[in-house]
Amino acid sequence: MFKVKINRERCKSCGLCVAFCPRNLLILDTALNKRGVHPSKYEGPPERCIGCCGCALMCPDAAIEIEEIPDEETVVEVPVEVEGKKK
Ligand code: SF4
Ligand code: SF4
I need a surface site. Which of 1, 20, 48, 72 has the fewest CB within 10 A? Predict the structure, then answer.
């Protein structure tokens, strides 16, 4: 799963990310940010994002970051070596 992190205060409301998202998951918020514009906002179930990073790459102000959150089932616990013994 992917988490779309938008820096609302950095956003200048150009709408490029909104237009680009292939899943139509981004909108411009009705609220204003400190710059006095309507910032981009993720709208939709978290699992709809495919993590394509298109929105982040399109943003001229680097206001978007995509973080991958591993599914619990796919996390593999690796044994840690402690003083020569496996814990
Ligand atoms: S990473 Fe891709 S699918 Fe997810 S919100 Fe951005 S453009 Fe849309
Ligand atoms: S591309 Fe960046 S600056 Fe433009 S609306 Fe999206 S987050 Fe805001």
Answer: 72
